[in-house]
Design brief:
The protein is built from 13 helices and 10 strands.
């Protein structure tokens, strides 16, 4: 990946010197409040224009996709560090700290951890009483969503389309996963070549592989966390240790066990996998902030689920030091400001540090982190819609500034509209598709002190 040109960096330095405080960046406007962060791709930090905007506006960076377990550690012994290193090295070079995202997630996970391996690193096949391999049928070439990552388990965590989660980098429009990352019955599979629509899928036989025990899963998870956290501990100041472990249910009064997403990790370990992940992360870096991160964290149901989980696991020794409220809001009713502030107040009973970790505000009625959503085709950012977006950002930031002693960072999820996982036609960010400031940018920056 090419580095920023010397000319571009010199021009940026001259511009900054000339502008001084006449044109402060977001990070300057909020220097007495909290960090202002952005989620980026390697392209953002190697393009001179985009990198200059990052340097002017932000003082915290999150890697959007390339530190997620399935991206950085797709197979046993296989590590893809190049993209994560490119972002981390940009931060090191320019003195910017990073949020680590993320160590455990039901989507884009290293699903091979749920399989059993022999002493030579080969997957263990199940055998019958005669010692013969047991064979099972599966759809050919991905079929109903693919078997996530080769034979790395049924990649959708709990079989069926998982709720929530971001569109993986490179995924087709519409929020679908690329082939091989979906779960059985999930979004990712493509119809096998030659199969007519509505026709039964072609099947193929494969060995039935033995599943890991809980202890074996923990061994793999601990080793993964140790490697990743230690590689970036010099530049990462906090981690989203566990991401989106709670259900999307609407009933705050359900029994504790029903408040969880029924992921493969939960089915194998119960809530203990969350406890263990935080303990492993703390072992690797005792100085890092350790966050539980989720979307729709303002709703009465999910804030109750998160509160009860964090309180219970903290009592059992989980070093959960912060809660990440993702964002992914809309300009209408998501969130309601009353419920948003109520959630903050609840979380402050448990932790001293809250962050908005994945901030965007789309212009339709959809919200949350679900993978299926409208890409906004045909939507237009009219003056009246822009006014609604400015009003929503203004009221949200007003509440966040009110609790500035307990907010350490607000992170926008992508740099400009063209980068957004939601699509440019949802217009969710402060910079447009050409990385120009939108009117809403000034609403956020130029608040009355």
């Amino acid at each position: 990946m090419k580095k920023l040109s010397t000319i571009a960096l010199i021009a940026f330095t001259v511009l900054m010197s000339a502008c001084g405080q006449k044109d402060p960046g977001l990070k300057d406007a909020y220097k007495n409040y909290f960090k202002i962060g952005v989620a980026v791709t390697p392209r953002n930090v190697t393009d001179s224009l985009q990198a200059s905007i990052i340097l002017k506006e932000f003082n915290s960076i999150t890697a959007e996709n390339c530190m997620k377990p399935g991206e950085i550690h797709p197979q046993p012994g296989v590590w893809n560090f190049a993209q994560a290193d490119a972002i981390a090295n940009f931060c090191r070079e320019h003195g910017i700290k990073m949020r680590g995202h993320c160590l455990v997630w039901h989507s884009q996970f290293a699903n091979w951890m749920f399989n059993k391996y022999d002493e030579n690193g080969n997957q263990v096949v199940e055998r019958d009483e005669n010692g013969d391999t047991i064979w099972v049928e599966q759809p050919a070439r991905g079929g109903f969503g693919g078997f996530g990552g080769g034979f790395g388990g049924f990649g959708g965590f709990g079989g069926g389309a998982p709720q929530g989660g971001q569109r993986p980098q490179g995924a087709p429009q519409g929020g679908q996963r690329p082939q091989g990352q979906g779960g059985f019955g999930g979004f990712g599979g493509q119809r096998p070549q030659g199969q007519a629509q509505g026709q039964a899928p072609q099947m193929t036989k494969v060995p039935k592989y033995a599943k890991a025990t809980k202890e074996e899963f923990y061994d793999s998870l601990r080793a993964h966390i140790q490697v990743v956290v230690n590689r970036y501990k010099d530049v990462v100041y906090c981690w989203d240790v566990v991401n989106e472990a709670m259900s999307d249910g609407n009933n705050p009064d359900v029994p504790y066990e029903q408040s969880f997403r029924q992921s493969t990790a939960y089915q194998l370990c119960g809530d203990e996998f969350i406890l263990k992940a935080f303990q492993f992360a703390h072992e690797a870096d005792p100085n890092a902030g350790l966050f539980y991160n989720d979307y729709s964290a303002w709703t009465p149901a999910k804030r109750t689920y998160i509160y009860n989980m964090v309180k219970k696991l903290q009592a059992e020794g989980a070093p959960i030091t912060g809660i990440g409220m993702q964002g992914h809001y809309n300009i209408y009713d998501n969130p309601t400001i009353e419920d948003f502030e109520k959630a903050i107040q609840m979380y402050l009973e448990l932790v001293d540090d809250i962050q908005i970790t994945e901030f965007d505000v789309r212009i339709n009625h959809e919200a949350g982190g679900q993978l299926q959503f409208s890409r906004g085709e045909g939507q237009v950012l009219t003056d009246s819609i822009a006014q609604l977006q400015m009003a929503k950002y203004e009221e949200l930031f007003k509440v966040i500034r009110k609790y500035k002693k307990n907010f350490s960072c607000v992170t926008f999820w992508n740099l400009g509209d063209r980068d957004s996982w939601l699509g440019a036609n949802n217009f969710p960010l402060l910079f447009d598709g050409e990385y120009q400031r939108k009117p809403v940018y000034y609403t956020v920056r130029d608040f009355k002190k």
